[in-house]
Amino acid sequence: MSKADPHHPPHPPHTYEPFEPGYGQAVMNELFKPFLGSYFRPVLIGGDRIPEKGPLILAPNHSGNAFPYDGMVLDGLLWERSGERPEAKFRSVFEKELAVTWWMRPFGIDNFWRRGGGIDLTFDNFDRLLARGERIIYYPEGVPGIGKGFFRRYQLQRFSTSYVIMAARHEAPVYPIYIINAEWVIPFCFTAPPVDKLVQKLLHVPFLPLPAAPLGILFPFLWYLALPARMVFVVGEPIDMRERLAAAGETDFQNPDRTRARHVANAVRDDCQNELDRYVERYGRWPYQARSFLRELRKAGRHWWKMLPLGWPWIFVRHERNRRRPRAKNWLHNLLRDWDLTFFYLPLGWPLLTLARRFRKPPHGFRGLTRKERNEIEGNFHWHLEKRPLPPREKDPALQPDTQGA
User: Fold this and answer.
1) For 26-77, where are the E strands, in sequence order?
2) Can you tell me the distance from the alpha carbon of 352 to that of 222, in angstroms, rounded to the nearest whole number?
3) How many CB atoms lie within 10 A of CB 191?
4) Measuring CA to CA, how many Å separate 28 from each of 22, 101, 136, 225?
5) Dist CA 122 CA 254 (whole Å)
6) How far is CA 19 from CA 155, 206, 256, 384, 386, in A?
7) What are the pLDDT digits (tens) for 185-237?
8) What are the Cα distances from residue 176, in Å, to 119, 145, 181, 332?
9) Cα–Cα distance, 347 to 298 (Å, whole number)
10) What is residue 16's predicted lDDT score, i.e. its pLDDT?
């Protein structure tokens, strides 16, 4: 289990808060900024439009890639902008596959998405988060957005009606986020509906990215392959879903008619598509900007290899482990104690990685643990806030309602 976090004291046993601000800050400052940040060179435009208090919804478009680097980078940028204050962390809601599927956790790190502030996406969870005043990152395209593949880049998929209903119910403004160039992170991925239906039935995963998945099966590190596209995030003008529903003839904002909500969702999608096309024209002509990437690579000096996806499984997992163990006795001990990480780079290394975790002692493996204990550490379960609620919100003066003049 992870060490106690001084920024995040323990809560009563009936609540559950896996978010670890200390771990998140360490990842941000020791890995994200110097390596992923230098690789993708992200830019946030219009961030001053985002209110410091919720409830509110940020609604980005997804990029058709095998792995959600766009979501990781956006989450990091937003938290960096807030000064990395734990109380100001956006809560990302994600599809359950990201938590329960081992290879969808970055580099196999246990419970990574929830430890970074994420929460399982269910209708009830969405409702409860907005009711407690959270600021949420929600991708209205859902799984089809990330599974659309490069050939349908920048083509917004059908928007969910749920966020229309939730935004109206809680009077939460919706801020579109237009993500540019992240489509070029993996520009050779595509999907095939018949194949997707088969893997949904057999493997319980929403889609099979090709050729990323077969390559990733052959060499695990290739699953995390990414090209150095410079990501641009543009914050759009807020959308008032109550106003949109009223214009569609719906005045019951608690339980609006689904047909009218669908009409609003489609209209919002069309508006966002027009804005996305405009920003792609402005910022998407040169997605890689090779000169700036080479400058960052030179700045990295002898650590240049850590900037490249080839090194990410090594540096992320070792960073995680080093927080939980004493320093190595010498250089040889430092090298040999992570012998199992070489399996990321061996042909058909996934079974070897799985076996290594099964037979290594905690905290680097599961030897001697029950299935229940293992699932809890991995985060291999569906989290419902009704059964395992979040603790009361921490008080942050910057996030409290303004009562002056009331």
Assistant:
1) 43-45, 56-60
2) 16
3) 23
4) 10, 24, 19, 20
5) 17
6) 33, 26, 33, 15, 18
7) 988 877 777 877 787 777 666 777 787 778 888 899 988 889 999 999 999 99
8) 20, 15, 16, 50
9) 31
10) 94
39 vs 296: CA distance, rounded Å:
7
* Residue keyed to tokens 């998929």: 157
Contact between 268 and 239 (Cβ < 8 Å)? yes
- Match 């003049």 to its residue by tokens: 405
Helical packing angle, 258-283 and 162-169, nearest 10°: 100
Collapsed DSSP state (helix, strand, coil) of residue 205: coil
Q: Which residues of the chain have pLDDT under 70?
A: 1-13, 64, 66, 203-205, 394-406
The string over 27-58, giving b where at least 16 C-beta atoms fall within 10 Å of a residue's C-beta and e elsewhere, is: bbeebbebbbbbbbbbebbeeeebeeebbbbb
pLDDT at 5: 53
Q: CA 54 → CA 88, 241, 270, distances in Å?
A: 10, 15, 26
pLDDT digits (tens, 9 = 90+) for 254-311: 999 999 999 999 999 999 999 999 999 999 999 999 999 999 999 999 999 999 999 9
Q: Are 71 and 137 in contact (CB under 8 A)?
A: yes
Give the separation between CA 164 and CA 270, rounded to whole angstroms. 14
* Structure-block tokens of residue 165: 């209903």
Cβ-contact 24, 316 below 8 angstroms: no
Query: In 67-167, which ranges are E strands?
Result: 91-94, 119-120, 135-137
Q: What residues pair up with 151 in beta bridges, in sequence order?
A: none
- Which backbone phi and psi does 50 adopt, to 5 degrees? -80, 120
Q: Which two tokens stand for residue 398?
A: 């910057």
Residue 174 phi/psi, 5-degree rounding, is -110, 125
Residue 392 CB contacts under 8 Å (≥ 6 apart), including other chains: none
- The β-bridge relationship of strands 56-60 and 174-180 is parallel
**209 residue type, one letter:** P
